[in-house]
What we know:
Number of domains: 1
Largest sheet: 3 strands, antiparallel
Structural class: alpha/beta
Order of helices and strands: EEHEHEEEHEHEHEE
Helix content: 25-40%
Distance between the termini: 19 Å
Strand content: 25-35%
Radius of gyration: 17 Å
Amino acid sequence: MQKVLVRYSNxxxxxxAFSALLSDGCPLLRTYYxxxxxxxxxxxxxxxxxxxxxxxxxxxDKLRNLDRYDVRLGKLEYRGENDSGKPIxxxxxxxxxxxxxxxxxxxxxxxxxxxxxxGDSDFIPAIEIAKNExxxxxxxxxxxxxxxPHASLLQIVDERKGLDKAAFDGIPYIx
Length: 175
């Protein structure tokens, strides 16, 4: 079985083991990965853009080849530049993809428990619908200071589980 690794601090973590940790022994229908490809100028991409895009594409391809993994990609849109001339990019469609999947799986009674690893309050309407359909919602989030979940997200879920580096101790590390 192919291993896909996610970086956490200075260690790489097996992606399937991470999914198993989050599922906490419950049967796993599928792990969904939501993101978007990095920006690459269509007419004249820089070498850095080409490399970043190619690296992400390799990662996405590996995830797509894992059992019980599904990759959902939104779009990255250029929105101009900030006051210092730095480009501004915004992920589009990523949140709604997760929300649609959660609501659809809940409404068709395909899941009884959903595990989310996020901090974004945009998912609250989908979470409310899933809960109304009888789905238990467990929120995992990073305990890192800059990545705390939105307070209203913490209030709406059924269970809250903060993760720090120690939570990854049971997952195989590859140096």
